[in-house]
Structures are given as structure tokens and as C-alpha cells.
């Protein structure tokens, strides 16, 4: 009886979002298993797919096509991850294929190569000149040889066809190794013989002798470097059978040249001891329990993580440590590599695709026991997890913004349940959702209220920028901040200046007629980028030059609004010309490794001031930073976002944790136009508990999370009326099926109603208990298939991060 594989194919579309059946050729029956990638025929194409199940028989057995290729020798997705993908589909409304792909390094995603294949007799000239005697060529080759017009003609005559083939991008890196073939004595002889006429070869022979003694091989490159010879010399010696080349599999290791100083577990403070006790109890008894570890900045949370992981590894289990992308600094990596060395795999977006793939393989093969990584590391292919830690659990980057819209915290909790292991959510400023769950005893609350060594939290001074304006100071820097910076420079201490970029951008406006340059495709003004001297749309990527005159009235009084980091840097240098400044923003950190380089330069004292956006708020732990200035604390407060207060509080608390980590007490200066705002006042007092109480009161009053769950439904269409009609229809369909208590906000056009020439409409559901809601929404998506195929876009985003 032939076996049949159920395959999820790599076509992210509504109509193909289900398993397809394929026959397993007899020769592969023993190999193919659920979780493996295969190549299958689909329509006229060959595409990649994931086997999710194997069955004996199906109804349409006779008409089935067979699997044509196997891309893995063992499953790349475990039973656990396949099971998880089912739940992800339900919770995120994404296609199954997108969920499966999200779990693997991008290098393992399918890549297709277009081929041109001969299907009918060609003339001799065509066969030999075009196809070089072969019967197919890649599209790329045809393109580079300028053959496409000729080939198009053959296509018309039905003599060739275009086909797609799956290419496995995931390539293992190989390095060329050298091994000696002679005995020590033979080499000694040859050395003497060639000393005069080929001294270089003699030198290589000496190195080979030492390799022989140490019983080691060397890479060809290393040997060339050591003996200072070219590869030609080695090739000559290989010809004489003195040495041989072979290939060895190697990992691309971004941390190859770094030496990590070994660190030991520190004796814990009594508070640390108190919080780690119940965690270790859960580890020891394989108990699934979610802990919320709330610890002020610098309270030694990381040491608690390290010692928990150490216990887990001692028990033969593995650990996942999630860190927000921007907090995954070299320092953070060093703390884990310093404690656990080679057992640590690191995954973050700064790595190349190949490096990520290699780190993933280290985990998969069991060589790494610990992964430290950003959001997607939550899918690390460990088989026996002992703990999952989500540091800075309040960070919004844990939720993926596009499909599949999963939240890494939810995935962590799911996997913790599957593996019967504890999950630790850590933060100095827990999200309201998590803090409220701890209140309800769904999570176990653990607190670290003091900094290690009783260091005090820094003083926070709030400056009302309205007063500065009244006093005639129009710059971005309050007088007292300027003086404090000068003081630090004089003492050789360092300052960090933070520009809050949320909800804010630089744009240009005509002073004569008020014209603002907008994007032709979207409802948004273009952002000024001085580095490329262009105006860019942050939504669709449209780019144009900076206008010299007003496109509307042709006047010449164009004004630049907003304060980008570049402009602030210029201004800073005009008030404090002696300052040495390092600027860190998207523009200066675009190149790979730039982020690390800038931080290292700052740590080594090459600058007095580090000026940057949000990305510098986290993870900076340099003892010489004694002053932090927040230039505009309140840009987020004006946004129509119910989390604006929470985000502002988190950001200010985070930066307030930076200065004064050494022996000198730190200071924070916060510039704002809303000095009385509770988020700013309570951040000044480092009072999370009062902030939590106040914010919960506001959320209760406004019927927002965590009191209510939320779902955002979006429609979009090139035709505005279609988008509006559809959202209305969706609401009419669900409304009768919902309880009285549920609130429907909208429909309304999105706050940016037109993006890339599509119109967006949305509505928000706020509900307390709707057990059928997700099923209803899945059904609506299903029944909208026809419209979706004709250009409608319909998306459902549970617990959206923003209502805009
Ligand atoms: N038990 C201990 N004894 C001595 N020093 C410690 C101890 N625990 C932690 N430290 C040190 O205290 C400093 C702050 O600790 P850590 O960075 O772990 O705090 P944190 O709570 O993770 O901080 P943040 O959330 O602000 O990054 C670090 O330099 C760390 O090495
Ligand atoms: Zn645009
Ligand atoms: Zn004008």
C-alpha cells in the first residue's frame, strides 16, 4: 500500500491554505517523515512544501501526483513545532505556510530558479549556440547572455518552456583544509633537499612537521598566512604528494575572533536568593509555572537568569533567553558567552543569513544548549527545554508586525506548557497585561526592589520647555542641560542624549502658503533625510529630491520642521563646540556591525556624548555614563494611542536606569512640554506601582486592555468604496453573534487612510468573553475568498499594538 504525504505548499494564498496529498515514491518511504521539506509538482510549477502528516490511503489516491524531491534528510520541524503551528494559525489568522516558515531560518525558505527547457526539436544552431548542447539553461544565464528575445521566439513556437525549480538556499560552509602526507623524517629529508631552490616550500614543510607532532590539520588559508606563501606553493606541494587538500564543514561564526572572559556565578544578594528559590524549585521538579520577575533597573535580574540557566544545563536540559533586538548588544552576548562559552548560540538580525542558519544548526544538533536571541529565537529547535526567559517582556518588538502576527511571549508560554518547564517574564516595567495577570495569580510575582550594592537610582530633573521658550531659549537644549553636559566634559565623564522618535518626523513646509510635501501614493507627509538629501515616504518607500521652491506657490521660503538626530547633532555642536559626539540612529547603523562599533568607540571614551534614538535606551551598562538627557519626553503623548502613557513611562524608566552604574551617582534630565503628566511625574519618582494603579484606573474607565481583549479588523482596496463597503459588511455579519457587552469601534478610515494607492478601513472590537469570536472571524475570512482573489485585503489582528 503506497503511503501518502499531506503537504503544506509554499503558496501563501487563501485557496491553497490547506494540506495537499502526494504519493510518496517507494524509494523514499523510509525517509520521508512529518516536518521535512519536500519538492512537489503544483499546477505547472515545482514548489517547496512541508510534510505535516503521513497517511495510508485517501479518496483520490489514483489521481495523486508524487513527491519529486526531498530537501532534508531528517525533519526540520519537530512534532512539537508542528503542533504549535496549528495553534498559531488559529490565534494569528495567518496562513499555515507562513507560520511554518516563521519557525525556520530564512535561508531554509524556498527559493525558486527559473529554467528554460527544450521540449521540441531545435535547429542545430539553436541547440548548440543557444543551449550549448544541453537541454536547459537557467533564466539568469539567458538574461546575462542577452538571449531572452531569441528565446521568447522559441517559446512562441512552443519549442521551449519555462519551469520553476526549487533551490535549497541553505548551504553549509566548507573550508579547504591541508593535511601532511609525509612522515616527519621524509619531510626532514625533503626540507634539506629544497632549502636552497625552494625555501618557501621548506618553510611550509616545517609548519607541516609541527602539525604532525600536534596531530592537527590546518586550513589552507591559515597555513598560507603562517608561512607567508601563496596558494600556488601549496598546490605545487600537493602535486608532489607531500600534502593533500580536503574540505571540512565549518560554521560561520560571527564571534570567531572574540575571546570571552570566563565569569563565575556571583554570590547572590538576599533578594536575588529569594526570587531564584521558587524558580529553581520549578526547574528541579519540571513544573510549568510562569513567573513575572519585576526588578528595578540594575537589580541583578540577569544574574538570576544566568544562574537559573546554569542549573537547567546541569540537569541536561536547554534554555531559551529572549532579549529585544535593540538590547542584544555585544555586552549582553558577552555576559552569556562569558558564563557558558561555546554552549551559547546567538540569533539576531545583525547576523548574515548564513550565520543565522549555522547558529540554528548548532541548536538543532544539540551542540548549543542555550540560545540568546530576539523574537524568532523562541522557535529554537530544542527537544528538552528547562526554562524560557523573556527579558524586557513589555517590549512591543516581541510582537511581529506582519504575518504571522505572533507574540513571542505567548509562544514562550505555550512551549513552557508543552515542555513542563518554568517561563520567566522579566522587566523593570512589566506590561499592564502581565502585571494584571500576576495580580490575578495566573503568574507568580517575584520582586527585586533594590539595586545590587544598594546603589541609588539617579535623580531625575524635569524641565518644562515652555519656560525655556519664555526665557528666549529656542534651542533643543535647556540651559541647565547644556551646563550639565559641559560639566561632564570637563570631568571626563560621559553623557547620553536621547531623542524620542515615536510619532514624530522631520518634514518641510512652505512658510508662504503652508504647503507640506506629501507622498503621491499615501496620505502622509514625506520625511526629510539629510544623509541621502532626499524626501522619503516611510510607508511605501517613495523617494524624491528636496524641493528648492514650493511646488504650490513657487515661493522660496521653505522651512524644515522637526528635529531629526542629524539636526540635533548640528545644534549640539553649535552650543557646545568642544563636544565629541557619536550619533546613533537608523542612518548611522545601517551597515552590518556599525551598531557594535559605535558602542565600542563610546565605551572606550572616544566621545563625550552618545546621541541617538530609542535604540540607545537599552542595555547600555557603562560605568562612565553619569548623565542622561531625554530631549523630548512627550512626543508620544499626543498620539491617539491608549498605550502612550505606558510607553512613555517605560522609556523614561529604562533610560533612568542607565547612568550611575559605576561608583558616581547618576543624573537624568527630562525635557518636556507636559511636566505634569502622570507618566512623567511617576517615572521621575521611579514609582512603578503607583503608575500601574493609575494606568489601570484609566484603562478600566476607557474599557481598554487588560480589562478588555481587543481585535483589529482591517480592509483595504484600491477602490475606496469597496474597502468601506466590506468593513461595513463584516460588522453587520458579526454584530448579531456577539454579546451585549462587546463594543465595536468604527468603522473608520485608518489614521493613514491611503498607503501605496490602497485605501484602508478598520474597526476595533473590545470584548470580555466571546468564546466563538475567533471561529466567526475565521469563517468570514473563508467566505471572503472570492473578493480576496479580486484584490480585496482583509486582515484580523488580535491584541493589536496600536489602534492607529
Ligand atoms: N549578586 C551580585 N553580586 C555582585 N554584583 C552583582 C550581583 N548581581 C548582579 N551584579 C552586578 O550588578 C550589575 C547590574 O546587574 P544586572 O545587569 O543583572 O541587572 P538587571 O536587573 O538585569 O539590569 P537592567 O534591567 O537595568 O539591565 C551588573 O554589573 C552585575 O554584574
Ligand atoms: Zn508613500
Ligand atoms: Zn508655497
TrEMBL record:
Gene Ontology CC annotations of this record: primosome complex
Keyword check for DNA-binding: yes
GO function term, MF aspect, one: zinc ion binding
Residue positions binding Zn(2+) 2: 519, 522, 537, 540
Domain (Helicase ATP-binding): residue spans on this chain: 282-448
Reactions catalysed according to its record: Couples ATP hydrolysis with the unwinding of duplex DNA by translocating in the 3'-5' direction; ATP + H2O = ADP + phosphate + H(+)
One Pfam family in the UniProt entry: PriA_C
GO biological process, one term: double-strand break repair
Top-level class of the enzyme under EC nomenclature: isomerase
Helicase C-terminal domain segment(s): 545-713
Keywords: ATP-binding, DNA replication, DNA-binding, Helicase, Hydrolase, Isomerase, Metal-binding, Nucleotide-binding, Primosome, Zinc
Binding site for Zn(2+) 1: 510, 513, 550, 553
Cofactor annotation comment: Binds 2 zinc ions per subunit.
Entry-linked InterPro entries: DEAD/DEAH_box_helicase_dom, Helicase_ATP-bd, Helicase_C-like, P-loop_NTPase, PriA, PriA_3primeBD, PriA_3primeBD_sf, PriA_C
Cofactor: Zn(2+)
E.C. code: 5.6.2.4
Subunit organization: Component of the replication restart primosome.
Protein function: Initiates the restart of stalled replication forks, which reloads the replicative helicase on sites other than the origin of replication. Recognizes and binds to abandoned replication forks and remodels them to uncover a helicase loading site. Promotes assembly of the primosome at these replication forks.
Membership in a protein family: Belongs to the helicase family. PriA subfamily.
Name the UniProt record assigns to this protein: Replication restart protein PriA
Organism this protein belongs to: Isobaculum melis
Amino acid at each position: 500500500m503506497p503511503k501518502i504525504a499531506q503537504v503544506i505548499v509554499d503558496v501563501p494564498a487563501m485557496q491553497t491554505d490547506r494540506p495537499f496529498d502526494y504519493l510518496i515514491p517507494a524509494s523514499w518511504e523510509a525517509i520521508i517523515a512529518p516536518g521535512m521539506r519536500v519538492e512537489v509538482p503544483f499546477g505547472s510549477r515545482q514548489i517547496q512544501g512541508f510534510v505535516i502528516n503521513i497517511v495510508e490511503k485517501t479518496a483520490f489516491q489514483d489521481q495523486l501526483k508524487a513527491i519529486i524531491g526531498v530537501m532534508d534528510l531528517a525533519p526540520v520541524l519537530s512534532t512539537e513545532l508542528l503542533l504549535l503551528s496549528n495553534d498559531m494559525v488559529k490565534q494569528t489568522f495567518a496562513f499555515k505556510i507562513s507560520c511554518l516558515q516563521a519557525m525556520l531560518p530564512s535561508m531554509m525558505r524556498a527559493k525558486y530558479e527559473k529554467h528554460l527547457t527544450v521540449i521540441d526539436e531545435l535547429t542545430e544552431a539553436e541547440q548548440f549556440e543557444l543551449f550549448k548542447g544541453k537541454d536547459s539553461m537557467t533564466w539568469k544565464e539567458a538574461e546575462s547572455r542577452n538571449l531572452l528575445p531569441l528565446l521568447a521566439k522559441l517559446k512562441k513556437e512552443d519549442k521551449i518552456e519555462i519551469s520553476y525549480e526549487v533551490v535549497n538556499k541553505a548551504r553549509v560552509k566548507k573550508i579547504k583544509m591541508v593535511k601532511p602526507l609525509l612522515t616527519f623524517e621524509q619531510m626532514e629529508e625533503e626540507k634539506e633537499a629544497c632549502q636552497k631552490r625552494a625555501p618557501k616550500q621548506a618553510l611550509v614543510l616545517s609548519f607541516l612537521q609541527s602539525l604532525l607532532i600536534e596531530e592537527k590539520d590546518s586550513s589552507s588559508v591559515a597555513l598560507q598566512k603562517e608561512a607567508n606563501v601563496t596558494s600556488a606553493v601549496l598546490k605545487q606541494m600537493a602535486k608532489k604528494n607531500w600534502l593533500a587538500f580536503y574540505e571540512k564543514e565549518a560554521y560561520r561564526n560571527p564571534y570567531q575572533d572574540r575571546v570571552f572572559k570566563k565569569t563565575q556565578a556571583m554570590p547572590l544578594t538576599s533578594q536575588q536568593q529569594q526570587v531564584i528559590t521558587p524558580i529553581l524549585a520549578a526547574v528541579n521538579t519540571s513544573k510549568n509555572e510562569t513567573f513575572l520577575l519585576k526588578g528595578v533597573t540594575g537589580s541583578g535580574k540577569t544574574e538570576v537568569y544566568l544562574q537559573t540557566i546554569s542549573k537547567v544545563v546541569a540537569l541536561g536540559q536547554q534554555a531559551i533567553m529572549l532579549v529585544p533586538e535593540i538590547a542584544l548588544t555585544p555586552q549582553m552576548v558577552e555576559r552569556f558567552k562569558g558564563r557558558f562559552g561555546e554552549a551559547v548560540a546567538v540569533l539576531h538580525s545583525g547576523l548574515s543569513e548564513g550565520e543565522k542558519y549555522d547558529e540554528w544548526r548548532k541548536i538543532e544538533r544539540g551542540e548549543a544548549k542555550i540560545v540568546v536571541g530576539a523574537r524568532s529565537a523562541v522557535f529554537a529547535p530544542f527537544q528538552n527545554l528547562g526554562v524560557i526567559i523573556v527579558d524586557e517582556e513589555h517590549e512591543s518588538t516581541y510582537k511581529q508586525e506582519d504575518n504571522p502576527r505572533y507574540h513571542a511571549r505567548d509562544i514562550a508560554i505555550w512551549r513552557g506548557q508543552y515542555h513542563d518547564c518554568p517561563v520567566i517574564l522579566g522587566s523593570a516595567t512589566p506590561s499592564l497585561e502581565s502585571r494584571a495577570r500576576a495580580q490575578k495569580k495566573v503568574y507568580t510575582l517575584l520582586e527585586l526592589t533594590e539595586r545590587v550594592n544598594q546603589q541609588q537610582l539617579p535623580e531625575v530633573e524635569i524641565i518644562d520647555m515652555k519656560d525655556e521658550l519664555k526665557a528666549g531659549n529656542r534651542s533643543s537644549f535647556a540651559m541647565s542641560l547644556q551646563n550639565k553636559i559641559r560639566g561632564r566634559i570637563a570631568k571626563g565623564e560621559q553623557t547620553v542624549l536621547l531623542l524620542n522618535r515615536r510619532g514624530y518626523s522631520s518634514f518641510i513646509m512652505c512658510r508662504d502658503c503652508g504647503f507640506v510635501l506629501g507622498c503621491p501614493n499615501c496620505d502622509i507627509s514625506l520625511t526629510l533625510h539629510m544623509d541621502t538629501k532626499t524626501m522619503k515616504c516611510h510607508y511605501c518607500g517613495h523617494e524624491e529630491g528636496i524641493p528648492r521652491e514650493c511646488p504650490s506657490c513657487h515661493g522660496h521660503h521653505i522651512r524644515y520642521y522637526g528635529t531629526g538626530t542629524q539636526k540635533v547633532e548640528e545644534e549640539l555642536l553649535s552650543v557646545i563646540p568642544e563636544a565629541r559626539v557619536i550619533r546613533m540612529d537608523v542612518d548611522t547603523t545601517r551597515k552590518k556591525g556599525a551598531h557594535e562599533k559605535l558602542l565600542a568607540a563610546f565605551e572606550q571614551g572616544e566621545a563625550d556624548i552618545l546621541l541617538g534614538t530609542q535604540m540607545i535606551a537599552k542595555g547600555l551598562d557603562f560605568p562612565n555614563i553619569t548623565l542622561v538627557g531625554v530631549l523630548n519626553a512627550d512626543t508620544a503623548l499626543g498620539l491617539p494611542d491608549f498605550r502612550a502613557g505606558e510607553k512613555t513611562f517605560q522609556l523614561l524608566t529604562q533610560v533612568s536606569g542607565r547612568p550611575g552604574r559605576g561608583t558616581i551617582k547618576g543624573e537624568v534630565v527630562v525635557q518636556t512640554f507636559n511636566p505634569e503628566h502622570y507618566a512623567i511625574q511617576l517615572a521621575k519618582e521611579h514609582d512603578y506601582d503607583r503608575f500601574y494603579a493609575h494606568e489601570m484606573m484609566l484603562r478600566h474607565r476607557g474599557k481598554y486592555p487588560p480589562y478588555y481583549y481587543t481585535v483589529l479588523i482591517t480592509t483595504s482596496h484600491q477602490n475606496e468604496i469597496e474597502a468601506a463597503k466590506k468593513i461595513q459588511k463584516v460588522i453587520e455579519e458579526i454584530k448579531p453573534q456577539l454579546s451585549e457587552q462587546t463594543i465595536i469601534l468604527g468603522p473608520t478610515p485608518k489614521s493613514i487612510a491611503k498607503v501605496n494607492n490602497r485605501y484602508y478601513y478598520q474597526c476595533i472590537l473590545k470584548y470580555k468573553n466571546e468564546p466563538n469570536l475567533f471561529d466567526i472571524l475565521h469563517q468570514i475570512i473563508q467566505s471572503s475568498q472570492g473578493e480576496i482573489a479580486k484584490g480585496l485585503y482583509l486582515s484580523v489582528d488580535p491584541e493589536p499594538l496600536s489602534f492607529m
